[in-house]
Amino acid sequence: MAVYRVCVTTGPYLRAGTLDNISVTLVGTCGESPKQLLDRLGRDFAPGSVQKYKVRCSAELGEVLLLRLHKERYAFFPKDSWYCSCICVTAPDGTRSHFPCYQWIEGYCTIELRPGTAKTICQDSLPLLLDHRKRELQGRQECYRWKVYAPGFPGMIDVSSFEEMETDKKFALTKTAPRADPGDSSGNRYLPGFPMKIDFPSLMHMEPNIRYSATKTASLLFNAIPASVGMKLRGLLDRKGSWKKLDDIRNIFWCHKTVISEYVMEHWCEDPFFGYQYLNGVNPVMLHCLSSLPNKLPITNDMVAPLLGPDTCLQMELERGNIFLADYWILAEAPVHCLNGRPQYVAAPLCLLWLNPQGALMPLAIQLSQTPGPESPIFLPTDSYWDWLLAKTWVRNSEFLVHENNTHFLCTHLLCEAFAMATLRQLPLCHPIYKLLLPHTRYTLQVNTIARATLLNPEGLVDKVTSVGRQGLLYLMSTALAHFTYTDFCLPDSLRARGVLAIPNYHYRDDGLRIWAAIERLPTPAVHSGRAGEVPHCNHLQLLRPARRCQQWAVLGWQGEIRDEEGAGSPTLAS
To answer: Which pairs with CB-CB distance under 8 Å and at least 24 residues apart come from 448-453?
Structure first.
């Protein structure tokens, strides 16, 4: 008689425990144990609990390869979700095998867990384990399906696929959830008292292992509701008229004042702060160093001579690498929206900046369109105060559109969703890259689903408050994605291509390069024995060496997926 000791840890989260029956089956190289119900006196699987059990077998099982976890009905109680953190199995000879789970298990089902040692497919030789990898990925690919939101967009998760899945699917980690078709307007309705529509069905149901935790949901509501209600009570949320005076904008910050917001309110109209925002503001990726002026920006030396001073000229500053351009060309053909029955306006400016001897970045000239001519004057700091300020304000408006739509939502959210989807669909839980990336993509799919339901949906927030509206947003993102290259996703290469490696006081560059260098300095992974229960002494970030892996992963969102392919020690590109 061989006795295996099983230690089960339940997550410490709200409602993480379960009343359902939990049983285990141990599968080893020499056989498998009988199905053993885990039952002690009192409640077994309370939140945060650690319970110990014994599993008796007629003979030793050899190396434990898999642990089957069975979740079944208990008496007359309804289905009860369970968050299992991990299970530790101690063999008769004292060998410990750790089986990480860290997921919500819903309904009545059986899942199979592998030991925690990270392994690529080339390190698995047993047919049992190879078949397990295959079945795990098949189940996840049925659950997490690709969908095209709009032409030219990166792939996204098809939330409607959850309604077709049963909760007892192995490895699928799914939740049955009805959802209206995206084209069905019945799911897109107004929130009472608020001026925008929300796609409620897509928010109501989300697979439990990718949705927000209870604490994160509470934190989100705690921050969003007071701000929204405050805007509503002050009449700002429903405001349809123009601002009467600039001081009215201070009403937005009356209960959210910070040192930064106060500083911005005091200095936003000053040229040095205008230039500083290009380096360390919300969108510090727009500047390109110029060696010559583009034909579409016909600036002469006489126009900027009063600003450059007597000891230099425009051509000399171009040769020194002190002239920079922020080009908002992508807005030139963007659709224009109507708000409250009035057509809106969008500028596609060219903003020329100069790095002066004091190290400050100063605006030299602004042209508000991509086509020079009498109807597109070039504004200069020597113009009247209000003309120059209005030109800078139009540039900041264009900066908002490019930043929010492309730099933020497209690059930060949508492209990361493509990587998260590829990880879930093509890498098993035991793959080292999966273990590395999963914590960083924990809430990506949920937050993007919320954004699509509240911001991108027809008559949502984007349609209600921006000059380009939803159609303009779709245009800007698809156009930007079509122009992305590998270089854009590799920070050192991007900085070098834009010619901003030497510009002073560029904290975005300095901080980003430090992080990049830290990853590059990671040691080469040590080869581990692969013995069950043994944690390898290596850092799997090495498998994502930025100069190479980041380039590969960047293209995955629109050209293919990563694959857990035999003979490959890390993900490969698949078309």
So the answer is: 448/156, 448/157, 448/413, 448/414, 448/417, 449/157, 449/159, 449/202, 449/203, 449/206, 450/203, 451/409, 451/413, 452/149, 452/156, 452/199, 452/202, 453/198, 453/199, 453/200, 453/202, 453/203
| CA 496/CA 329 separation, integer angstroms | 21
- Rounded-to-integer distance, Cα 52 and Cα 42, Å: 13
Q: For 318-333, give one letter per residue: b (16+ CB within 10 A) or e.
A: beeebbbbbbbebbee
Lookup: tokens for 172? 């699928």
| Closest listed residue to residue 157, CA positions, set 412, 417, 454, 408 | 417
Q: For residues 74 and 79, what is the distance between their CA atoms, to the nearest angstrom?
A: 9
User: Which tens digit of pLDDT belongs to each residue from 342-383?
Assistant: 899 999 999 999 999 999 999 999 999 999 999 999 999 999
Quick one: which H or E segment has residue 9? strand 2-10
Digit-coded pLDDT (tens) for 406-438: 999 999 899 999 999 999 999 999 999 998 888
The type of residue at 183 is G
Residue type, position 472, single letter: G
